[in-house]
Amino acid sequence: MSGTFQDSQILTYQYGIPTSLQNTGQQWDFPNAWAPLQDLVIRGLAKSPSPRAQEVAFQLAQNWVRTNFEVYSRDSAMYEKYDISNGGQPGGGGEYEVQEGFGWTNGVVLMLLEHYGDRLSSGSQTVFLQPHCLTAALLLSLLLGLLPQ
Hints:
Order of helices and strands: HEHHEEHH
Strand content: 5-15%
Number of helices: 5
Shape: globular
Structural class: mainly alpha
Helix content: 40-55%
Radius of gyration: 15 Å
């Protein structure tokens, strides 16, 4: 892994990778984290021949799935972006309110569950939160979100 990547300290954020390190108040900057960026970084590291990079990919996946699960457990919703400086709260900034049930967030979490589900944990000690149950809960959420209100 490059020194610049490690020097930026983006790996120290426990709720996801910030989109940038500039805190401008805009939605594409710190402290927001977006699912497509998590996906690109995790996939890139996972494809590396370096065992260290592959382990970092897993840890980043673990962080992102936990963030989404913790917020979903509290709010019964997944969001388009998360504020990774504030315990993984829904993100902010930009021209509009944060959107619930966003497709790319749902899709990235499902992809991570498929790829790493046998190793992921929710951080909770309850039996319900085994990887296959986490997958089922998130799928159920997605399906319920498609029903007319």
